[in-house]
Amino acid sequence: MAKTSASFGRLRQRLWNNHHVSMRDKDNIYRAIVLSTLLYGAEAWTVYRRQVKKLHAFMMRHLRSITRITWMDKMTNKDILERTGQPSMEDLLIKKNLHEDVTKADSLFSNVFWSQKERAPSSPVQVHQEQLEAERHKDRHMDITLRAER
Hints:
Blueprint: H1 2-10, H2 12-16, H3 23-38, H4 49-67, H5 77-84, H6 89-95, H7 99-115, H8 124-149
């Protein structure tokens, strides 16, 4: 993310803060330079939800800067994405074939996990706790598998 921040910062004075450049041109340049730098080599990454959230926050911070929308303007991220015409970070990662594998593994594991349950969870808190437990179990299983392969 450091290289992407540097490329974004180099364009701040001449492009992002320039009122004579249209928003459409800024969006196209953002996609071509900043996002391509950020997602370079993304096909080889192992992506977790926490990293997707960090990448999304990084992207939204830059889009807010480009559109000059501050947190005090009370605009949602979804509204900013619609205004700029940018896809969400998760959509970008799916296009790069990253998040898709994680989602498939999660759904397979949850199908197996939930099929062994005798009852449905009774509250949203319990659902969340059981999902966290399932993720922890999956992470432990992945670590054991990787160690065994070495």
